[in-house]
Amino acid sequence: MDDGVTQIRPATLDDVPAIRSLLAAHGDDGPATTVDVVGPYLGHLIDHATALVSERGGEILGFGAAVNTGVSRHLADLFVRPDVLGQGIGRPLLATVFGDARPRTTFASADPRALPLYVRAGMTPLWPCLYLEGVPDGLPAPDPAITIATAAPDRLSDLERAWTGAHHPIDHVFWASQADAEPFAVFEGGQPVAFGYARARQASPARVIDRMVVRPGSDPIKPVMAAIRFSARGSAIVLCIFGPSPVLPILLEARYRIIDRDTFMASEPDLIDPIRLLPNPGML
After folding, report:
1. pTM, entire model
2. Residue range(s) occupied by CATH 3.40.630.30 in the chain
3. Domain made up of 131-278: CATH architecture
4. Under CATH, which architecture does the 7-101 domain have?
5. Average pLDDT for residues 8-24, to the nearest whole number?
6. With 212 labelled, which of 6, 48, 86, 193 sits at a CA distance of 20 to 30 A?
7. CB 230, CB 197: distance < 8 Å
8. Phi, psi (deg, nearest 5) at residue 179
9. What is the dihedral of CA 253, 256, 261, 263, to 10 degrees?
């Protein structure tokens, strides 16, 4: 290969160490002191999504991946090695990852270069996406009408398809396979009103609500409170909340703190319900 030519090609599992080094250079990977979350996530993208690398002279300069969420082509990751930023690596990689697919969505980081790139790719910034951490102690008292139990990922995939039309069962299998994962369904009056996945967090004793969907038309507050208590197991819990969610002020009042933020961007404004989705940033 000509060392002066940058090529875009499908990522392979052999590329994972180089991709992880690239992510770590941006603060998006680190030592797996408790469990490894990033490695399995990258493996899932390579095996089941569109995952590409930009390569020059045998060196990986960029990584991009997009998943089919059932409602959009979602840009999961776009990273360029810091020492080659501004050299025309990111834009062609983004264009190749998306192709002609629409609708399209992503989460833009706080890096000021990210949002303009995604606007030029046809997406509009819609809502802040806030990552909160806290413990269940200060939450409102539980409602005895709300119950919660573990559930199989195929059942949760069926619920999502019935509620939203999105059908991506292979992703549900992945969420259920994560470190110390616990798929769950939330019931009110014996009927399912929400589902989600909890898991361990890399390099932290806190747990994570990896993703949660509340049934259309249902009030999200009580199901989310029940999910936090169920998922925390006596430790801190991290979850991602869109700015419009009515859950946000309750968590802030309960002394949850914002530890990070992104901006949700989409080519169309009504693809998802920000009130009833607690997203997985990489996979929506």
Report:
1. 0.95
2. 7-101, 131-278
3. 3-Layer(aba) Sandwich (3.40)
4. 3-Layer(aba) Sandwich (3.40)
5. 96
6. 48
7. no
8. -60, 125
9. -40
